[in-house]
Amino acid sequence: MFAVQVLPRPEITQCLKRTASKIFESGGFIRRIDYLGTAYTPWKISSHDAIHKQASYFIVEFDVPSSAVDPFNNYLSRDIDIIKPSIFKVPENIPQPACTLHEELKPPAYRFEVKEMGAIGKGKREKEARKKVQFNTGLDYKPFQR
């Protein structure tokens, strides 16, 4: 994921081409590029002697050898168009629950996931109800009750 400073479309394209060519040079390949749009940053980001309040956000899913991650991260931090680079390792083979349109169209109260969350919440409430708070003050009366 990286945030690029707000630029005209041709310059953003050039920035993406530079980044993609660096991935290819390091022996990797790109699986997907998602453009998330231009938005305000959560806070002011200071990068390359400038303060940025808006950025264009991209998610680039790619595979590279592990030895090439540090040099690539270094390259991203030196690119003047990229405000904030972040590289995350995506775990492989994440099991996804089977989801059908029929299951999605059910009201929330009838969905399996919501029922499961309710059971978990109910179990926690029952445990908290069984706990009795005892204050060991050493007094045989309660001084703050009338």
Automatic annotation (TrEMBL):
<dbReference type="GO" id="GO:0070181">
    <property type="term" value="F:small ribosomal subunit rRNA binding"/>
</dbReference>
<protein>
    <recommendedName>
        <fullName>Small ribosomal subunit protein bS6m</fullName>
    </recommendedName>
</protein>
<dbReference type="InterPro" id="IPR000529">
    <property type="entry name" value="Ribosomal_bS6"/>
</dbReference>
<dbReference type="Pfam" id="PF01250">
    <property type="entry name" value="Ribosomal_S6"/>
</dbReference>
<dbReference type="InterPro" id="IPR035980">
    <property type="entry name" value="Ribosomal_bS6_sf"/>
</dbReference>
<dbReference type="GO" id="GO:0005763">
    <property type="term" value="C:mitochondrial small ribosomal subunit"/>
</dbReference>
<dbReference type="GO" id="GO:0006412">
    <property type="term" value="P:translation"/>
</dbReference>
<comment type="similarity">
    <text>Belongs to the bacterial ribosomal protein bS6 family.</text>
</comment>
<dbReference type="InterPro" id="IPR014717">
    <property type="entry name" value="Transl_elong_EF1B/ribsomal_bS6"/>
</dbReference>
<dbReference type="GO" id="GO:0003735">
    <property type="term" value="F:structural constituent of ribosome"/>
</dbReference>
